[in-house]
């Protein structure tokens, strides 16, 4: 299966931040692509996901996916990790259905993460995005 990964592994995150400061979310499921296949659910190829968060704000420090489409979905999630996304930032995204990547924005018990954003202008609670810097005059 394909593999997509960004950021720290769980052991590296524990080494860097300490075990008490790390929270992981995991998921294992049969990709919807295999839904129509005439085979037992346990025989369908699985997708595995792990989201690694650090600190009380649950900053996302690692995302790891193995399974169909994992290589494609990691591009956007890589940008989010590099921008300092938190679990709450992922929770506030609208899941694109039916896709495997929707699992990463619906992991764990929804709404239980602290409402903390890693974004410079938080998208939480409907805040408007900031304006671009360094604009030239329209005149």
Describe this structure in words.
Helix content is 19%, strand content 22%. It is built from 3 helices and 4 strands. The chain has a 4-stranded antiparallel sheet. The N and C termini lie far apart (54 Å).
How is this fold's topology laid out?
Blueprint: E1 3-7, H1 10-17, E2 22-30, E3 46-54, E4 59-66, H2 70-82, H3 87-91
Antiparallel strand pairs: 1-4, 2-3, 3-4
Question: What distinguishing features does this structure have?
Answer:
139 residues, alpha+beta, 3 helices, 22% strand
Write a concise synopsis of the structure shown.
The protein has helices at residues 10-17, 70-82, 87-91, and strands at 3-7, 22-30, 46-54, 59-66.
Largest sheet: 4 strands, antiparallel
What is the average of the pLDDT values?
83
Which structural class best describes the helix and strand composition?
A: alpha+beta
Strand content: 15-25%
- State the helical fraction: 10-25%
Taken in chain order, the helices and strands follow as: EHEEEHH
Task: Specify the oligomeric state.
Answer: single chain
Q: Main sheet: which strands, in order across?
A: 1-4-3-2
The rounded Rg comes to: 17 Å
Low-pLDDT ranges: none
Shape: globular
Number of helical runs? Answer: 3
Task: Give the termini separation.
Answer: 54 Å
Number of β-strand runs:
4
